[in-house]
Write a structure and sequence with these properties.
The structure is a homodimer.
Chain A: E1 2-6, H1 10-21, E2 25-29, H2 33-40, E3 44-45, E4 57-60, H3 67-71, E5 82-85, H4 90-95, E6 102-103, E7 105-107, E8 128-132, H5 139-150, E9 155-159, H6 161-185, H7 189-194, H8 197-202, H9 210-219, H10 221-244, H11 249-261, E10 271-274, H12 277-285, E11 289-293, E12 298-302
Helix pairs in contact in A: 6-10
Chain lengths: 310, 310
């Protein structure tokens, strides 16, 4: 497979390295000459993004606000292949890319540090890669991109842009606002000196660039509001217990304790799944993922092992 | 100094190892015969807690609910020395120990695992150790315990039970409830499969034993309610921004970002401080700590370096 990678930061760079290692014909491009130079020691790098249009699949791995503009280089007429991306909000990207042979993707992997120097071929091994099978996504295009990320060791999770963005609000965007709020609550000198592990982990992502988090808020507003309201309800229950029935808090804490103790979900047995739109979407809804595609129309998949909690 | 350590789990065991290494005469006791046996290879261990009453200072390092009962072994009449503890809530312990020569303490160190096998002499090196100088605490007793924990490398933070418990609610107890609420919000199969680093860290302490967290709620109720309300206000501001002015979220995120980026606080220059009650309490209020006590009435202290933020 000839794969073009546009943007060679941590994610794009790691994807390019991994794809090259998996035997694909990779050609990369980055706006930074320094990055192009470093990357050229590892795989083919073009000096002009137009050179990437010969590829079968274009991976657009630029910051979220730039995906739409960057994808214009691969607009229909200029590019015959499939376009996929790695941005953390899918509905927004999809809305700005109508007409393309577009398959939205989001690898659930990263590091605290950025840039090509931090890229590594193993970044996606065993990690979930959400891949959107929306109404207007061609199943054949989706399958081609799924094969690509399976070849670098990712667990490809079939989902929709809407379902992905709802989950992302719950597992990441909400956490960023909560971390910020917790940092504000503990803003007194004694608290800051006494704070240790609980505070460190609960607030880690509060140090993220404010512009990055604002992007989550702006582009995933509705789902983030819904997640905030869900959190408000849970914290309301907690507050009521603390105020009126503190001795019952332990019972309330049991369910979240088991939920956290059984996370990340353990893989169940491998099973075959027909590569149909309905089967794939049903798999994603149960938290399942593709492990390989051996055949033209059957995948090997796994679902989370059923929790042994009452 | 002859130091008795009652309870040889992670904290008591580490304290005993550290104190022995620092040259103190340590005698320990634990209700578990297996723990006593393991500990006896490292320092003196008694088969009867009564043997601990010869010490100058008794360190009660048993679970919070048992501190009061355990401290009865060191009640006035039976024991002439100072009693100190390591429980995570200070007002509650203090209220149940009236009449003792008691100095409440709380080391801000720990591990995800428990028990003497996990104990290590270096656990407290460079870590904050809150030490309560309440109205009824004798300054000489406080200073004797401060010297003890300074000798194992801790940063002794002078505070009051009330100020400690307020800070603990903000930096730890609140985080436990928030982690539980976040785990509940993300309780759907797709979210659990896609969840990665943000969710992992934000919810880590949701896996804590429910009984332990219930203890925080029951014994630090008022401060936890106040912290919950503080969080509610911050999240209310965030929600209003997300709903009505998403493009202004970045500006709101700047302060928490700087707060987290400048945490943990960097030590400022060493300075001398007279060992008076007023000076010590003022030091703690500014987030400062003792580094050593060379003299009978002067300590070397440090305060957090002033943040260079606007």
């Amino acid at each position: 497979m000839r794969v073009a990678v546009l943007g060679l930061g941590l994610i794009g760079g790691s994807a390019a390295l991994a794809l090259a290692e998996a035997g694909h014909e990779v050609i990369g491009y980055d706006t930074s000459a320094r990055t192009r130079e470093a990357a050229a020691e590892r795989f083919a790098v073009a000096d002009d993004p137009a050179a990437l249009r010969e590829a079968d699949i274009a991976v657009v791995a630029v910051p979220m606000d730039s995906v739409a503009a960057a994808a214009e280089d691969f607009a229909p007429g200029r590019f015959e292949g499939i376009v996929t991306d790695a941005a953390s909000i899918k509905g927004f990207v999809r809305r700005s890319l109508g007409g393309h042979r577009f398959v939205g993707g989001h690898p659930m992997a990263g590091k605290a540090t950025a840039g090509f120097d931090e890229a590594e071929a193993d970044l996606f091994r065993g990690r979930a890669w959400a891949l959107c099978l929306d109404e207007d996504t061609a199943l054949a295009d989706w399958t081609a991109v799924a094969r690509l990320w399976l070849s670098v060791g990712a667990r490809v999770v079939p989902t929709t842009s809407a379902a992905h963005d709802r989950a992302a609000a719950r597992i990441s965007h909400l956490e960023h606002l909560v971390a910020a709020a917790l940092a504000l609550v503990a803003d007194d000198p004694l608290s800051r000196t006494l704070a240790a592990g609980s505070f460190r982990d609960a607030t880690r992502v509060a140090a993220s660039p404010a512009r990055l988090v604002e992007g989550m808020v702006v582009h995933n507003r509705a789902e983030l509001l819904s997640a905030l309201d869900g959190l408000g309800r849970e914290l309301g229950t907690a507050r009521e217990l603390v105020e009126s029935r503190p001795g019952e808090t332990g019972a309330w804490l049991e369910r979240p304790r088991r939920l956290r103790e059984t996370w990340p979900p353990e893989p169940g047995e491998a099973e075959p799944l027909p590569l149909t739109r309905a089967d794939l979407l049903a798999l994603g809804e149960t938290g399942g993922w593709l492990e390989s595609i051996e055949d033209i129309d059957v995948a090997t998949v796994r679902r989370p092992r059923v929790k042994s909690t009452p």
